[in-house]
Design brief:
Blueprint: H1 12-17, E1 26-28, E2 31-33, E3 42-44, E4 64-68, E5 78-91, E6 105-107, H2 113-123, E7 138-143, E8 146-157, E9 160-168, H3 177-191, E10 195-201, H4 205-214, E11 216-229
Parallel strand pairs: 9-10
Antiparallel strand pairs: 1-2, 2-3, 4-11, 5-10, 5-11, 6-7, 7-8, 8-9
């Protein structure tokens, strides 16, 4: 990975919406966001002069949005309700992994969006919306018609694709399904000439160890800020 591109990872939402995901971009001056039914992510141009960022035109009353990375100087109409620290990790090499139990990996169609939303939010509530599957390829494992594991593509920048929605049903953990899906997805991304990256909560030591075992490297810690309009 060229060091020339590392700056994009400090503001991944901005650079995704400026490149591969530009068709999703809702833009107001130096601010961009995804449609709320796709992702609750909003971003700003770090290179712009640091004046007050007023982005009331891009958010609805009572909506909570996520800014990844540095916060701009927000106007008084904004409040930060939470800040969660994540580890940003990148994988450079192909992954070889075999699950303890073999089950076919299937590509999940967008027609399965309702099932994916219910499943992912039952395990990792918050960011997965009905339009999220439109962002990239999503894969899953089903047993007797029931979805029991998922992994998919979220943010996409030129040359890089984020892996997200890595979830396993609690009754099926410990069988290697998550690792199997991650390996499959990483290798699919690399076949397309891109490198996979991901974000994992910095307190999720088990997941961090798993990703390191699979070949991911830590790049930096990065904060997900939940912001909303105040006083409305």
């Amino acid at each position: 990975m060229s060091n020339d591109h590392l700056y994009m990872f400090d503001n991944p939402v901005w650079y995704a919406l400026k490149s591969v995901h530009e068709d999703f971009a809702i833009v107001y001056e130096k601010v961009q966001r995804y449609p709320s039914h796709v992702l609750p992510f909003i971003s700003f141009d770090h290179g712009a002069e640091q004046t007050l960022i007023s982005i009331e035109n891009l958010i609805e009353k009572d909506e909570k949005a996520i800014i990844i990375g540095d916060l701009p100087k927000l106007s008084s109409s904004w409040s930060v309700s939470s800040a969660s620290d994540y580890v940003q990790m990148i994988c450079r090499s192909p992954i070889a992994f075999t699950a303890k139990e073999y089950h076919e990996i299937i590509q999940l169609p967008t027609s399965d969006a309702d099932e994916m939303v219910e499943f992912v939010n039952s395990i990792q509530p918050g960011y997965f919306k009905n339009g999220t599957p439109l962002l990239g390829n999503y894969y899953g494992i089903k047993i007797d018609g029931m979805l029991i594991a998922t992994a998919g593509e979220r943010l996409k920048m030129n040359g890089y694709t984020e892996i997200s929605a890595v979830c396993t049903h609690p009754e099926f953990t410990g069988k290697g399904f998550a690792q199997y899906l991650i390996a499959h997805l990483c290798n699919q991304i690399k076949k397309s000439g891109e490198l996979p990256f991901l974000h994992v909560l910095n307190t999720n030591f088990r997941a961090i160890s798993l990703y390191e075992f699979l070949g991911f490297e830590k790049r930096r810690n990065i904060t997900f800020h939940e912001v909303s309009l105040s006083g409305l």
